[in-house]
Design a protein that fits this description.
heterodimer; A: alpha+beta; seven-stranded antiparallel sheet; six-stranded antiparallel barrel; 7 helices; B: about 650 residues; alpha+beta; six-stranded antiparallel beta barrel; 36 strands; about 25% helix; globular
Chain lengths: ~350, ~650
């Protein structure tokens, strides 16, 4: 235990425990493989479709490596869109063959990039179809996490289950990621340095997701283990593979101050914002203001704007600032023990 | 219907293995059915497992809710409190059990979020601080489906353990799948499972493969684990679960609105090693249940509630799950006689305040002699003089210096200490009214005999092979009999560690004192995990020099001050004191009471009034000593203060 923990420390000082787990994960796959031939075959076949990607990095402790998986017999490789691809990357196949790769398309909003290597007749994951995914589905995560697989060694396999499905646009600001769709939350510690772009497959080898970059949950600060589902990536992936490379603009910026909502536009006076996270209590409501018309009162606690949870006053203001001041604002408030929904019409 | 078949088989096959002895024909029939279905459907074991997990989760998912905490924000370790967690509905009257995570202070609002997204305000009914649980009650009439809480344990190591939660999203339950790794962990309070449990699962149920409740997920920290907060262990494969039967037994108390606290007895075993077979007590705390029951220091603990004590660790293991207000039977051996006492465990024992006699001891043969009598001390008032030999304390023969100090420290405040000393060959009985630790540093101490000269000192770099922290050590080049160790944690980004130790040279020669300055690994901050680095560096110096274990103290500069305090309070078995500048703002760690077995003192440098945090420390039993200084950087510039620090360090040896 001690020795493993030290190994973990050396690899990544900030999370010694994660390193340990990875090794435990590898061991448990062995046990499964012993008892069940299909899983063993899945591992053998899937590992041949997962590649190691090397590129830019090396500064400020950033790793210069990540993972990818082959999505066409002509050498298209799906991987995570990241700084690693700032230079033309090198792709190493599971048998050690090494190729200079070109970025042929990327989709920042999906955190997806597609590389092309000049080789044919490769084993690949079909992205046209993927099985339905529900909580509790046993999965294998295949990636070169921590760059443990050196040279011609195939990628590392970990086993676990789909822990949850989370719709991210309902939790805006939680993920510091430009991807805002649904993700598969995993119960294995899969998202370590280098794992981004790895494949998430079912025990019978069907691709269901791409492992994401390392991310912390913005609210709890906990590291997330997740994969982007194939169904979210499919249409862009297929489009890029078929030769049409379109790059879309990143997300819209918050609105100008004189065009957005704020406390004044609604007629809200909030309690003094003196704490680190002051709960969004209404202190008073201006007479004749939209807030008063909507029935808001002093001591109401604002819980939601639309479907965004408001934990503090600062979040509330951020939300209002991102809304056009001509639009109505839907609030969910707590008044005593009652929960009410109010529409504030400007 | 079709989809249910493999699961049904799965459940039956487990039943089959259990009942196989009793109903062999039925069991074999069931096994045959399983084989048949597997063959007909070509369903692999994987599918059966998937469906069994889904079905088990489905069975209880209506009883799992999300809990939002509004206005609860603080950081613990690398995590932030206040993100949604999970809760478990335990009856149809609106009671919901959850984890204390984020609920140690009552937040502005607690909201229960149901699967349909509806929110219901809840009130905090009671806390079980011994098990990290909180009981909530929903005010509204919303209909809830309770989980069944078994009141008997059926948990076996190796069985399935599925953590279920709705912290990630209220709409669908999330699962984390693993097995039971151990039972009776955390001093008998929790099960351990290997499922990766992240904070969003805290407060949710853990179930077996058939959907029966095993317990509730809570954050705890393995006692033997490294320094850090309990939440550092999330997703680690080491997760703790309060067992269902322990919950069932306490629900009525919690529902009545009564908080549950851990029960304290107030005994201090002689050995600090859990595996030691020395079951004697070195002290019994004043005003403790043990003292009221009649248990005395020197007693040997044989059993608690008829469970035998074989090693010191058994005591904590047996008392761990006991709550305040419960009565325990303690069987002891005293003077070859076995006695049994009943004690009602207390939530709080008035903080231990070390009592002092006011002498510096020295070993003389196998006896303890008085080396120095502090002015205005209890010892001086009792007319004790240097070279008196201590023979008896409260009618018991004197043991080691440490034992004697502990007996004096924990002596009840309301009665005098009776002492027998030998002076010029004659025994003399004296009664001493003990005092609390003086709040000022003694003005003068006799110069210790020192054989090391002015030039016999050097400053050498020290480091550990696997960490980037730099460090230097001021130490004598010749052998010394005993030496104090002052550890100084540098301001992050500080380059020249020599400048921190150089000013101490004169004092070091006189007392003698080794000074170890350590730099942080990063230029901006000290990280809590570096606590281990500091401890390892101290241990390294202890191997090099004959360090007096009573004289290891930590001070610092800038962020190093707070770090030093944290290292000291987390590593009391090693560090005896901490030096803190009056303007610092310590925090970021959980404060526990001062402990007789490893007491810690605090020296406040600068200022004339004890700062607020100092008063907090004092209230939980830490002796506070304050030294004024006019300097802005007293630990560097103020030579008089250096002398005072050295005298304070030597005074830590006081009995």
């Amino acid at each position: 235990m001690m020795k493993l923990e030290m190994l973990g420390t050396a690899l990544r000082r900030r999370r010694p425990v994660r390193g340990v787990l990875m090794l435990i994960g590898l061991l448990s796959v062995n046990t499964i493989a012993l008892g069940q031939a299909p899983v063993k075959r899945t591992i053998e076949e899937s590992r041949r479709k997962v590649v190691k990607v090397y590129g830019a990095g090396g500064l400020s402790d950033l790793e210069a490596y990540q993972s990818g998986f082959i999505v066409s017999p002509e050498g298209h490789v799906a991987t995570a869109w990241s700084y690693v691809l700032d230079v033309d990357p090198v792709v190493i196949l599971d048998d050690g063959r090494r190729y200079e790769a070109q970025v042929v398309g990327f989709e920042p909003q999906l955190e997806l990039a597609v590389l092309k290597i000049e080789v044919g007749d490769l084993p690949y994951f079909s992205v046209r179809e993927s099985p339905p995914v529900q909580v509790g589905l046993p999965v294998l995560a295949i990636s070169n996490l921590f760059n443990i697989a050196a040279g011609s060694e195939p990628a590392s396999v970990m086993q676990g289950y789909v822990a949850g499905l989370a719709e991210l646009d309902a939790r805006r600001g939680v993920f510091k990621s430009s991807y805002q769709g649904e993700v598969l939350i995993l119960d294995l510690v899969a998202n370590n340095p280098g794992a981004a772009g790895g494949a998430l497959v079912t025990r019978d080898g069907q691709l269901i997701g791409m492992l994401g970059k390392e991310l912390r949950d913005g609210r709890s600060g906990a590291w997330l283990n997740y994969a982007l589902p194939v169904k979210a990536l499919r249409s862009r992936l297929l489009a890029i593979v078929s030769g049409e490379a379109i790059v879309e603009a990143p997300m819209a910026e918050p609105l100008d101050r004189d065009k957005s909502h704020n406390f004044q536009t609604l007629g809200l006076l909030m309690v003094p914002n003196v704490l680190d996270q002051t709960p969004a209590y209404v202190d008073a409501v201006r007479q004749g203001s939209p807030a008063e018309m909507a029935g808001l009162r002093a001591d109401d606690l604002i819980l939601l704007v639309g479907n965004v949870r408001i934990n503090d006053q600062t979040t509330l203001l951020e939300q209002l600032r991102s809304m056009d001041r001509r639009d109505p604002v839907s609030l969910v408030i707590q008044r005593g023990t009652q929960i009410e929904t109010v529409q504030v019409q400007p | 219907m079709y989809a249910h078949v493999p699961l049904w088989c799965f459940a039956l096959s487990e039943l089959a293995t259990r009942t196989i002895g009793m109903f062999r024909p039925l069991a074999s029939l069931v096994v045959w059915l399983v084989v048949a279905y597997t063959w007909v459907n070509n369903a692999s074991a994987v599918d059966g497992e998937y469906q069994a997990i889904q079905s088990a989760t489905e069975r209880i998912s209506a009883s799992v809710v999300q809990i939002e905490l509004i206005g609860a924000s603080a950081s613990e370790g690398e995590l932030t409190l206040g993100a949604p967690i999970s809760g478990t509905v335990i009856d149809d009257k609106g009671h919901i059990l959850t984890s204390l995570w984020g609920l140690e202070q009552t937040p502005a609002s607690i909201l229960i979020v149901n699967a349909d997204g509806s929110r219901h305000p809840a009130e905090l009914v009671a806390r079980d601080r011994n098990r990290e649980l909180a009981l909530l009650k929903v005010a509204s009439e919303a209909k809830m489906t309770p989980i069944a809480i078994p009141d008997e344990t059926t948990v076996r190591i190796g069985q399935w353990a599925i953590a279920v939660g709705r912290g990630i999203t209220p709409r669908t339950p999330a699962v984390s799948v693993g097995i039971v790794s151990a039972t009776e962990r955390m001093y008998g309070r929790a099960l351990q499972i290997d499922a990766r449990v992240s904070p969003s699962f805290y407060g949710g149920p853990v179930i077996d493969i058939q959907g029966r409740m095993i317990g509730i997920s809570v954050p705890m920290k393995p006692e033997a684990g490294s320094a850090g907060e309990k939440s550092d262990w999330y997703d680690s494969g080491i997760a703790f679960v309060v067992p269902a039967e322990a919950i069932a037994a306490r629900l009525d108390v919690l529902k009545s609105g009564k908080d549950i606290e851990s029960g304290k007895l107030g005994i201090v075993p002689t050995s600090k090693m859990p595996i030691s077979k020395d079951r004697t007590l070195s002290a019994v705390l004043a005003l403790s249940p043990a003292r009221r029951a009649g248990i005395q220091s020197g007693d040997e603990v044989l059993a608690i509630d008829d469970d035998p004590i074989r090693r010191v660790g058994d005591i904590k293991q047996l008392l761990g799950p006991r709550d305040a207000g419960e009565t325990v039977k303690v069987k002891i051996r005293r003077d070859e006689k076995e006695l049994e006492f009943e004690a009602e465990l207390a939530a709080n024992i008035p903080p231990f305040r070390p009592r002092v006699l006011g002498i510096l001891p020295r070993v003389e043969g196998d006896q303890i002699a008085i080396d120095f009598v502090f002015p205005d001390s209890a010892a001086e008032k009792a007319k004790l003089v240097p070279d008196d030999l201590l023979t008896q304390i409260d009618g018991k023969p004197v043991g080691s210096i440490d034992r004697t100090r502990l007996m004096v420290m924990t002596h009840p405040p309301d009665s005098p200490l009776s002492l027998q000393v030998i002076r010029e060959g004659k025994p003399i009985d004296v009664a001493c009214d003990l005092q609390s630790t003086p709040e000022a540093v003694v003005e003068q101490l006799p110069d210790p005999e020192s054989t090391i000269g002015k030039d016999d000192w050097e400053i050498v770099p020290r480091n550990l092979p696997d960490v980037p922290n730099k460090s230097v050590l001021l130490k004598p080049t010749k052998d010394v009999a005993e030496i104090g160790l002052l550890v100084l944690l540098a301001r992050p980004g500080m380059e020249k560690l020599e400048d921190l130790v150089q000013p101490w040279r004169e004092v070091a020669e006189k007392h003698p004192l080794a000074v170890l300055a350590i730099a942080s690994s990063e230029e901006q901050r000290w990280k809590p995990v570096e606590s281990d680095v500091v401890v390892r560096m101290i241990e390294q110096v202890r191997k090099l020099l004959p360090v007096d274990s009573q004289q290891i103290v930590i001070g610092g500069f800038g962020a190093g001050v707070e770090m030093g305090m944290m290292v000291c309070l987390r590593n009391r078995e090693i560090v005896r004191g901490t030096i803190v500048q009056t303007g610092s703002r310590p925090g970021g760690f959980s404060l526990t009471e001062n402990e007789p077995a490893s007491p810690v003192q605090v020296l406040i440098v600068g200022g004339t009034e004890i700062p607020v945090w100092g008063r907090v420390l004092k209230n939980v039993g830490y002796p506070i000593v304050q030294v004024a200084s006019k300097s802005n950087d007293p630990l560097i510039e103020d030579a008089q203060l250096h002398q005072a620090v050295a005298r304070w360090m030597r005074s830590l040896n006081r009995i």
